[in-house]
Write a structure and sequence with these properties.
single chain; alpha/beta; 18% strand
Length: 215
């Protein structure tokens, strides 16, 4: 069992990069947001536990998030390869994840840190539009839909997330910077961190990652 991690600030292109890697490899894309929503939807014990924190307006604790991830790992075969998107978010989550893989005889092989200037991240996020029906991402400039406000795939309505407003974005970027400083240092010390210029074209980024994985 192996895993790679896509780490980067909001707007760095983790989701887009993940799509490219999944299409070209056998890595299974795991986003903790999706796993958390599934746990809530299925009404699992972990989902109910996480829901309690969320209803009180509290962050779901690191150990609960990791347990939700572990439940997903336990459902896969021993030779599967996973790609985490935006997880871990904290140093504690990273250590718990490493311990979890060790217990399963696996390891995290690469941590790809997508780094981009703040101005670029703000531009990407304020221009992002998401389909209400299928969840596909568009951008008013970089990836515009064929018909304004309409998804190319399912004709669903496109909308702008509330947290993609500039004031909120600045706060999200500040929180990310504080959270990940020690996380980046942790993976860099372990020799697993690969810094990538996220301002490059998405195909260049994806191809670069694929070449590193081949080695």
């Amino acid at each position: 069992m192996e895993a790679i991690i896509l780490l980067g600030a909001p707007g760095a292109g983790k989701g887009t990069t993940a799509e490219g890697v999944v299409q070209a490899t056998e890595y299974i894309h795991l986003a903790t947001g999706d796993m958390l929503r599934d746990a809530l939807k299925n009404g699992s014990a972990l989902g109910k536990l996480a829901e309690g924190f969320m209803k009180r307006g509290e962050l779901v604790p690191d150990d609960v998030i990791v347990k939700i991830v572990e439940a997903r790992l336990d459902g896969g075969s021993k030779d599967v390869r996973y790609m985490f998107d935006g997880f871990p978010r904290t140093l504690e989550q990273a250590k718990l994840l490493e311990d979890s893989f060790k217990r399963r005889g696996g390891m995290v092989t690469h941590v790809f840190f997508l780094a981009a200037p703040r101005e670029l991240l703000i531009s990407r996020l304020t221009g992002r539009r998401i389909c209400r029906k299928c969840g596909r991402n568009f951008h008013v400039i970089n990836i515009p839909p064929k018909v304004e406000g309409v998804c190319d795939l399912c004709q669903g309505q496109l909308y702008q997330r509330a947290d993609d407003q500039e004031a909120t974005i600045l706060n999200r970027l500040e929180v990310f910077s504080k959270q990940t400083e020690s996380l980046v240092a942790y993976y860099e010390k372990a020799g697993k961190l690969v810094r990538i210029d996220a301002s490059m074209h998405r195909d260049v980024i994806t191809n670069g990652i694929l070449e590193m994985l081949k080695k």
